[in-house]
Amino acid sequence: MKALILSTALALAATPVLAGKAFVSNERSNDITVIDTETWEVIETFHGGNRPRGITASPDGKLLYVCASDDNIVRVFDTETYKEVYTLPSGPDPELFVLHPSGNPLYIANEDDNLVTVTDTETRTILAEIPVGIEPEGMGISADAKYVVNTSETTNMAHFISTEDYEIKHNVLVDQRPRYAQYTADGARLFVTSEIGGTVSVMDIAEDGTPDLVDKIGFEVSGVLSEWLQPVGAKVTSDGARLFVALGPANRVAVIDAQSLEVLDYILVGQRVWQLSFTPDEKFLLTTNGNSNDITVIDVASEKAIKSIPVGQQPWGVVVVD
Description:
Layout lengths: L1 H13 L6 E6 L4 E6 L4 E7 L4 E6 L5 E6 L4 E6 L5 E6 L4 E6 L6 E5 L4 E6 L4 E7 L4 E6 L5 E6 L4 E6 L5 E6 L4 E6 L5 E6 L4 E7 L5 E7 L16 E3 L5 E5 L5 E6 L5 E6 L4 E6 L5 E6 L4 E6 L4 E7 L4 E7 L1
Antiparallel strand pairs: 1-2, 1-28, 2-3, 4-5, 5-6, 6-7, 8-9, 9-10, 10-11, 12-13, 13-14, 14-15, 16-17, 17-18, 18-19, 20-21, 21-22, 22-23, 24-25, 25-26, 26-27
């Protein structure tokens, strides 16, 4: 018995710890960079279609969804083998999307066609095409999955779409060129970034999903021109304490108290920081830096940049899976 226990313990000790993987879409080099999130080393690069941008993973982490914008489809890859397993219809020029928490369906912004396309990930068919404002971009989903929010860049609106009947229930005017919509984990608040307006619109969300625009967050960095402060990607911690906002050509990520809405700090990262993604344990935040062709790793606890990793040309999106 002692020998059995000892051999079992040794076997468990010898079992390698499974590290997470970060997948980065590079829109100019048309590929996906894979990074080991334990060693922070690039372990693979594979073709992602033409102009890969939006990127996300299935809830079980087995499938990777990529908006191949110039192919007018969503490409689906196995996260272990990196092989393409099938494609999904997306409508023209898919840019950003959001996946239902169950893994089905996928809600896709079609920038050139002023539509949000709803695609069934199992039957691989289009369920609905929802007319929205001009140049739809950002996509967010509420905590209860009853609403999908689309931001339309030229209309300067956030559209609140019911996931039950695919009808727009609310429209909220925000500042110029809204890029991203991010709910808090409890669904009580929504943040919408506006790239040219230079602000983040803050909305309180009622229990029935009705939004109320309550504030706007602005930015100011010494030595940086105001027109360079262009909020794009955003992520909020699951406890609702911190909001991180990528500021584009300002090459910084803003750190914001998500309760008081005070800007606490700015973290210097790579050039033209675009999208953000936490590791699943939220110990690290990754940024894609489109002009320096790298990602920055931010330690969330210390709110400091700790590493830069070269990737492909013009990294756009990033997602991390266990």
